[in-house]
Amino acid sequence: MSETINQSELEARAARLVDEARKAGADACDAVAVTGVSLSVDVRDGKVEETDRAEGDDVTLRVFVGKRTASVSANVLDDPKALAERAVAMAKVTPEDPFSSLADPALLLKKFPELEMLDPTVMEPGALAELAMEAEEAGLSVSGVSKSGGAGASWRRSGVVLVTSHGFSGAYMSSRHGLSMTAVAGEGTGMERDYDYDYRMFQEDMEDPADIGRRAGERAVRRLNPQKISTRTANVLYESRAARSLLGHFAGAVNGSSIARKTSFLREKMGQRIFAPSIQIVDDPFKPRGAATRPFDGEGTGGPVLNMIENGMLQHWFLDGATGRELGLEPNGRANRGSSGTSPGSTNLTMQPGEKSPEEMMKELGEGLFVTDLIGHGVNGVTGDYSRGAAGFWFENGEPVQAVSEITIAGNLTDMFARLVPASDLDARYSVAVPSMLIEGLAIAGE
């Protein structure tokens, strides 16, 4: 494979599978063909440690025989007929699923939006190594940094094709660039490490490598000599990096699969206010150069931009065709494709920023906890109970005064969402994009 991806070849491969599945007895079917090439370079102490290049082709065929369905995946399509026959044979012996089928033909996209998703820039190992070394050098230059934890740069180009037996055929290509650096500060048992990174669709949007390395070094130094704090109730300000997990918990709770299974603490909250009236949360599959931008979903439909939270009120679930049918609702183009079929999920999910910077919030609060890292997965999706290990900084008079670690933050997400206040520092680079977030009066378990 070269860096140039032949979309017509991918489409022909998927169409051949669909044709063979119909001949084998499938009532309906679809095929996804994915191809990609990626390159990554890792450096440490100014030397290249590893260069990795990967190329891959994958195809997944999903067939329907009555209300029964099965999926088969392969890396090499040597025998489309045999793959199709195997999928149909599997479907005939699986339990019936009354909600599984192809998308409603009326919802299929006929015309695709023009989206800027493919960077023509092709990265070579030498160029990636230079970027990583520049980031590492900047991190090591920070006073207090004792060693490098390594730096890495990466590039990927991929192509996706979806073909269905009821008339849909679509394809798109996308690119990804990444750069990260990890710095270590201190010595012996007192060492602390931290990192910084950037991840973009276009190389020209990437941050300066020196800035990434410098921030990694500064973050590591700030973590030195952490202390425990006593158990208390305090105001907690989540740094944007840590706050993304809060929006992730929201996304999981409004996923149609969780609603259908009755495993979401928000399943009775549609149309109700769950955030403050100022909170707006938008899911946009067409966000320019967004990390999860796509012209169509995993079923060939094109979901609209969704105002998930408008004026603090819950407006939508994330729905694919199956969960929409199970819940008696219209699907909204949020199908993500996996090896066994589709499942609903978000695209570019963004909490809109507030009016005050984190620094202004800290000054107004006087004292509290500024969380930079979270540990563990202590969230009960059914009840909303929340308990996460955390590290960060205790601030007084609006200024950080002490690194803290080995503490636990606890609460309930229903109550936390109701009291959440976004800062103004929206980090819009990632598929879950948030500013820093303040939640007053959370329980902190320490010494």
From TrEMBL:
Residues 232-446 form the Metalloprotease TldD/E C-terminal domain. It comes from the Bacteria. Residues 120-224 form the Metalloprotease TldD/E central domain. SUPFAM superfamilies: Putative modulator of DNA gyrase, PmbA/TldD. Residues 337-351 have a biased composition (Polar residues). Pfam families: PmbA_TldD_1st, PmbA_TldD_2nd, PmbA_TldD_3rd. InterPro entries: Metalloprtase-TldD/E_C, Metalloprtase-TldD/E_cen_dom, Metalloprtase-TldD/E_N, PmbA, TldD/PmbA_N, TldD/PmbA_sf. Residues 29-91 form the Metalloprotease TldD/E N-terminal domain. Residues 328-356 are annotated as: Disordered. Belongs to the peptidase U62 family. This is TldD/PmbA family protein. It comes from Roseibium algae.
